Amino acid sequence: MKNYVKYNDKDLIELFLDKIITEKNLSQTTVSSYNSDLKIFYEFLNKNKINFCNCNEDSFNKWISFLVDNNIKTASRIRKISVIKQFFNFLHEEKFIHSNPSVNIYLPKKNKHLPKFLSEKDIYKLLDFMQKNSKTFTGLQTLVLTEILYASGLRVTELVQLKIASITEDFKSLYIKGKGNKDRVIPLGEYAQKILQNYLLKVKLRYENKNKKKFKEKWLFPNSNSHISRYSYYNRLRKAAREVDICSDKISPHVLRHAFASHMLKNGADLKVLQQLLGHEDISTVEIYTHVNIEDTKKALKKHPLTKIDV
User: Helix count (H) and strand count (E) of the chain?
Assistant: First the structure.
């Protein structure tokens, strides 16, 4: 075993983070999340006068109980436990510890909740309202954000951080840098192309004489300082939803992403294609939308004439 005395627990966290940054090419957001989870675990052990070297399976189970007692959601517990298991695998592989206390610890089963999504009718109501209120730059920007999101299924972070250079010359596609810095190309339909072209003219006017930075390097959805934030767009969506009598609890950028996926599948899109468009590594993540459409099918079957016949 390596000389553990040379390294304190915080050093070991840094060594682990350096390794995953080098080998996994994770985004800065993901690395920060790993760091936060590890520090919380470190503080828990420290309060109980335990360090990484003498941590055992019982210590691990007490920490998991601590998460449950503090009402940490299942998805968050799965992520935290996964990070700590990766960390102890690293410590064991690098011979900082004799045995791995996490080897017999299993991830809790994630509850499969059907995603919230809007009907096509609700989407049209929302877009129609935004179209009628697009005379100001803010109104037009909100309309374009929503059109692009529903036309592409982008994550909201990917959407608000789009650069003008993300648009292809013919306006037919967007270049996206997604999770883990992985690139993908998203095609756009004719209507989305047209509305994007018109919007870009307004953006050019907004940027004129502001600075010497190259136009294509600038944000596609600017605000006064940088790009529009996720929260600002979320609030605009909720406000628009209230105006057209859509429950504001049903609306968010993520719900629009779900609507894109569900409506695509309902209209015959291939599951593998949908996986690529959404930027998911695992097709099982996309398969939940088949359950959404199965529920639609069940509801539709209840309206079949044969259901009215007594047997």
Answer: 12, 2
CA distance 307 to 311: 9
Catalytic residue of the set 19, 163, 179, 238: 179
- Cβ 4 vs Cβ 96: under 8 Å: yes
Backbone torsions φ then ψ of 279, nearest 5 degrees: 80, 30
Same fold, 4-93 and 120-301: no
Per-domain boundaries in the chain = 4-93, 120-301
Residue 131 and residue 123 in contact, taking contact as beta carbons nearer than 8 Å: no
CA–CA dist 226, 236 (Å, integer): 17
CATH topology assigned to domain 4-93: DNA polymerase; domain 1 (1.10.150)
Q: Can you list the residues of the chain whose pLDDT is less than 50? A: 4, 294-311
112 is known as an active-site residue: no
Distance from C-alpha of 106 to C-alpha of 110, rounded to nearest angstrom: 12
* 3-state percent helix, strand, coil for the chain, nearest multiple of 5: 60, 5, 35
pLDDT tens for residues 274-303?
777 777 655 555 555 555 554 444 444 344
CATH architecture assigned to 120-301: Orthogonal Bundle (1.10)
Active site residue 257: yes
Residues 105, 61 contacting (CB under 8 angstroms):
yes
Told to judge if 230 belongs to the known catalytic residues of this protein, a careful annotator would answer: no
222 contacts: CB under 8 Å, gap ≥ 6:
203, 206, 207, 228
- Residue 163 token pair: 């650069």
CA 139 – CA 143 distance, rounded (Å): 6
Assess whether 280 carries a catalytic annotation: yes
Of residues 37, 39, 17, 38, the one with CA closest to residue 28: 17
